């Protein structure tokens, strides 16, 4: 993903059969939802994709599933080109003749399912029904916001008794005077597979509004049973995941000054809460880097920076934890990588007490500990910067140092294999006394 603009250029190349297009049931006075009129050459003002995908190359069902086996996955990460298990696409066209001034078209696709043999060869192919995917325009607000509800219950077509890929997602799309759109997602989905909501304005760059990767939470295909109220959900707890994402997207690259201007009124007053919220959404989708953040805060009066930073931290989304000691139910998704931590550190300089929050400290350590112990210089350098930034929070600093302290000889050898790692080891030892 690009870190210099509001969104990456991610053309979708789904390996899917021709779409089965359906007209949604639309109450009077709402935008008409029609089967997509392909081949018109018309570019939608806004296009939103809701996809489910299996990030692994292949997955196996539990042994007790009748007719189960090993199946090909999509083998990709969030926002990457490739296939998906299910896809629903909302296309919003400017149309003065339609209610609300917009025509909404929705299509649905399902990807091919491949059963694999012992040597990884494809031995059986099937495809789930597009009728398992439903969509409806449920509201049009006075400010022009179009609200669409999308649901899915798509089982593996090659398994006799299979729980479906289950989701219930609401997408709110608000047009803004500057030509951007604010896309907000809510709802819930199973803890497996992966899910993403992607938006494109006027045929520009595709931008990630919401993403969920089951590899982060450790979820497996057994989590699919939760969506149907199955027994595994009762034994291991609720595996459902709440959808929460919001991003203002545009066809052009966003500059720091544009982000500030977006939340500045005619009198020059900046809504720092809205600014921090918007910045958090862009950060979580990989659309800004530390330099971008520093430019934004440099443009704010000093007495407004803490408010914007607090709003940023208030709006960081969380990911279900792994249930390890110390017990954590949730941790901040942005802290899972060194790149994300660079952004957090840049914002945290203006709200140091929020930077020291346990979910941030634990999230970074849990996700990056193995890389640090393997000698990854980028992860080690970011960990050192994090420890330094926690100098005014001794307890948090000691917690991070304790999480990162190598225990085994191989870990010690790995962390000492680079200058960045050796510097980190020195900081860890000083923090622990």
TrEMBL record:
It holds the Pfam family DUF3238. This is DUF3238 domain-containing protein. It comes from Luteimonas kalidii.
